[in-house]
Amino acid sequence: MVYNEQYTITEDDYLPHYLPEFIPDNLFTRNGLRKMRRKTKENHVGFVYYPEQKRKYKLYDVNKSYKFVPKTDNPLTVYEKVYTLEEMLERRKNEIELRAKQLM
Fold it and tell me: What is the structure's pLDDT at 75?
């Protein structure tokens, strides 16, 4: 990496960056963990990068997360679907197939 005075190297630069097709099965974004009703207190372990959106999202290890029960103040949380790990992996597979079709 070429040093530039306007750019400082941070710890995040040393974490792995994945394209959506190559994310390991144990890594999810915070939104993905929330859909499985899981939380983590650990720091992120990598990033997923979407070049067409020029966005990157933090990835967290599902093995270092814990289940939580949402507050029931909001009645809509009762009807929210809770996904299992297998359902989330199937959903990720469908998203990758859709992304491949869109990029062609």
Answer: 64
